[in-house]
Amino acid sequence: MLLVTKSTLAATLAWIVSYYGLDAQSPAFAPFSAVVIMYATVYQSVKQSLRYVGAVAAGVAVQAALGFLAGPDLLTFVLVAVIALSIGRTRALGVQGPQVATAAFFAFSTYSSTTDNMTRISQLGQIVLLVLIGCVIGTAVNITIAPPLRYRSAEYSVRILARALCDLTADIHPVLREGAPDAETTARWRERANQSDGLISQARAGLRTAEESIHYNPRRLLKRHRGHLTFQGYETVLNALERTLSQLASLTRSLDQWGQEESEHEYRHFLERYAAFLEAISTIADALSALDEKELGRQTENWDGLVREAQTRRREVAEAAGARSLPLADPTRPYGALVIEATRLMEEIQYTSDTLHSWVRA
User: Fold this and answer.
1) I want to staple 163 with a disulfide (CB 3.0 to 4.6 A). Which of 6, 56, 204, 289 is the partner?
2) Is the CA virtual torsion 16, 22, 26, 31 positive or negative?
């Protein structure tokens, strides 16, 4: 809603300037440009407006150079298309690369419709001017009217991964408590764990948005937002959760390679202890999925007890493995891998807890 409103205002102002102020022949270039560079963050608006103006200027320059040298014939159009499309594929212009060819084609149409060289120069220059006006107005509107400050996107990023960890462990521990899972169940767990890459990408995109939102944003100078000039704490927690999901994916692979033909009755106690450990991990992940920076001090106190509980359950797993003389060294059975994965999972959870405590003290 906010972006639509701001885009509408920017487009209207750009139209007024180009149509009524300049009496331009193609005034639509200005409002179109104002809308194109209206991004979710001020940083992206500034960055993309510079790239967009550069792309349009490059496209018009290609057409002007070839047009005045060879004239507005079909061969010239082919050369303009080849050169403009090649320039548009350079990394420097990013997502605005295709605008080089678009601008060149519009410029070719404008060039072909006129016969006087001075008029052609004026019209081609006007295209660049209109685009520049649209970008300036669009960026100015984005900066001055409720500039987006999306620092809570960092919180949501942590919550996304914590919720994924919570949901998967919450599905695993009840089944393990009942005994060895069947092949279909473990395959489903493994597939879900492997799908976490998409969630990780989504979470990192949210963190990048939060980091970008403070650049060139006048709202960051307000007192209530001064604590969000960096997001190192969020990034550290996000990295730890990413590693935790990776360990969980390894754990599901170990379970999926379970030898179903063996009898698990004598190892039932170990599975029960392991289920209790994963239940403790699920509880911690559920608490992390409700991360709120304003309540971080109180939340870390609650997490301390949950982490201690998980540490106790992890030790019980190791004790159960030793007491039952499990075949930990047998690569065809999952017990040794499960003990190792429990230790690694606990290390990442402890690291996350320590990071949150450091964050609170800071």
Assistant:
1) 289
2) negative
CB under 8 Å to 151, separation ≥6 — which residues? 210, 213, 214, 225, 228, 231
Q: Residue 17: which residues within 8 A CB-CB, separation 6 or more?
A: 30, 133, 137
CA distance 21 to 17: 5
Q: Give the H/E segment covering residue 102.
A: helix 98-112
Extract the tokens encoding 322. Answer: 């030793």
User: What number of other Cβ atoms are within 10 A of residue 199's Cβ?
Assistant: 18
Q: Which residue has the tokens 């180009």?
A: 18
Domain spans of the chain, in order of start:
2-144, 152-361
Closest residue by Cα to residue 336 from 317, 316, 312: 317
SS3 label, residue 181: coil
What integer pLDDT is reported at residue 223 of this predicted model?
Answer: 42
CA dihedral 123, 124, 125, 131 (to 10 degrees): 100
pLDDT in tens, 112-132: 888 788 888 898 999 999 999
Q: Alpha-carbon Rg of the chain, whole angstroms?
A: 29
Q: Which CATH class is domain 152-361?
A: mainly alpha
75-113 pLDDT, tens digit each = 999 999 999 999 999 888 989 999 999 999 999 998 888
pTM for this one? 0.68
C-alpha to C-alpha distance for 184 and 186, rounded to whole angstroms: 6
Can you read off the two tokens belonging to residue 266?
A: 């004598």
Length of the chain: 362
Q: Encoding tokens for residue 15?
A: 């139209």
**21-47 pLDDT, tens per residue?**
999 888 999 999 999 999 878 888 999
Q: What is the dihedral of CA 155, 157, 158, 164, to 10 degrees?
A: 140
